[in-house]
Amino acid sequence: MPDTPNPDRDLNSDISPTQPPAPLSEPTPDVASAETDTTAVAHTTNELDVLSTTASPVVTGKNLPNWPLRWLWIFILTLVGFYVFALPEIQIAWWNYRYPNRMLPSFLQLDIVTRSVLRLLETFVVAFFFAVGSSFGSFLNVVAYRLPNHLDISVAGSRCPNCNKRLTFQENMPLFGWVSLRGKCSGCQIPIPFKYLAAELLVGFLAVWLGVHELLSGGINLPLRAPNFYAGVVWIIFYTKWDLVSYALFHFALFCILATQVLTLDNQLAVPKRFFVFCCSVGMALSLCFPWLILVHASLFLPGIEMREPGQLEGVRLEWQQSTQISVLMGDLYSLAIALPAAIGASLLSRHDRQFHFSMWLGTFLCLGIWLGWQASLCIASVSLLISLPLVAFQLPPYRKALYMSCIVLGVTVLHHGLWAVLVNALLNQLSANAMPLQ
Hints:
By secondary structure, this protein is mostly helical. Helix content is 59%, strand content 1%. It contains 13 helices and two strands; from the N terminus they run H-H-H-H-H-H-H-H-E-E-H-H-H-H-H. It has a two-stranded antiparallel sheet with strand order 1-2. Mean pLDDT is 79; it is low at 1-36, 38-62 and 303-320.
């Protein structure tokens, strides 16, 4: 009888104890687990890539090389190198070709080291003139905007008009600040108008022109005054000629007044009356305290008044008397008499500009007479109004006509200042030719 199976019997009991157990085979992974592992590895790799990207420095606009500023420095250094080292050699070659039998000028006869040192001194002085002028140009931008809007011009620093971010010292540097910012605000990235850079360049070049043509030249453009025999950086700057320095500063202040008027009109704002009252008051105070700043006597070129200047002009002995406080006051009265009709003429030419009233032109021409003398004011006003006549035929926006006329007045003033001595000497020669010899 066969044995009936016992349910309580262990199935492993059928295996002989001497028979080794069958080895356990490794479990074969299924497809789902393989896809899960691959996905996990991919996620891990992506996370490592993200972490490595985050750890690397982020390249922003501030970290990028400022190529405009670098190119500006390269241009400046190239210009300086050409002026210091290459230009003298070109002058020597041209002189030997043009005048083979003549000696070189004294400067070109110096050795290359001395010549280069002198040229470097001239470069540094001209750079100083430009830095001072462009700084004044940056300040005049502030004056032209804040003064008509009744804002304080002495306390608050320069700020962005859009985001009100205050400019740092580096950002506020003339020329270099605008170039380093690439013409945009560092806070809101709003473009900075080019007119601010143009104003800095304008006043900077005016300062360089005045410093070179009037100061370093020994006053070659100043009338009724013999130019200094020894001129240049060494004799004028290191052995300071304070009379020339005072003339240059006095006339540079006048250029700043005219430039402020141009910048204010460019902002489509009217120049306030108190601005010209202040400028005329300062000019009168300086000329009364230092009457020798007025180079041309008030009675010069008037009929029936004896001209006086040491020397001989066309065979006639003329004696010149220096300006005094009385002559300065006389000149101011003559300047007022010239400024009134000139202001009326300028108002008629810009009659459509109602916001630019008669008082602005009166203050402009009166400042010219106070700072340069009534003779210069008469010449500048006549030429400026004559050049401005074609503007009547054009239909321009309200502020543009006054702006163009102010630019013309500034340009004619600069041109007159460069030819001042030539014009006065020509008039003196003409008057002395018609004058009676003195007994």
